[in-house]
Design a protein that fits this description.
mainly alpha, 2 helices
Length: 119
């Protein structure tokens, strides 16, 4: 036999350490990617929730203003000399229900109504 090939040599190759290094590298890389994506997702969710809260707050403030404007317009329309009887009926019903108040000096108030009383 030749000296170049000797099957009984004690030098053998093991794939254990290279595979451990490769697998641990992949696990570390996937962990970093997962952490980055989760932190980005939480930042986006936080921004989205803040935006929704600000929109909801602005809408709730605008509803009150729109109600006051609507009631003011309705009162002005009802005060015309009998030209708009449906508006006068609505104002009369609102006065009886306590949704609007008439001030002592004769001017009407279109303020936000008080909570209805529980009977």
């Amino acid at each position: 036999m030749s000296d170049e090939y000797d099957p009984n040599t004690n030098n053998y190759f093991s794939a254990f350490w290279p595979l451990i290094i490769l697998i641990s590298g992949f696990l570390i890389w996937f962990g970093i990617q997962d952490y980055g994506l989760n932190s980005q997702r939480s930042a986006y969710n936080r921004q989205f929730q803040d935006k929704q809260f600000q929109d909801a707050l602005a809408q709730s403030q605008n509803v009150s203003k729109k109600y006051v404007d609507l009631m003011s317009d309705l009162l002005k329309t009802a005060q015309t000399e009998g030209k708009d009887s449906p508006a006068a009926k609505i104002v009369g019903d609102a006065l009886q229900a306590g949704l609007i108040r008439v001030q002592q000096n004769g001017t009407n108030s279109a303020a936000t109504p008080a909570e209805p009383s529980k009977q």
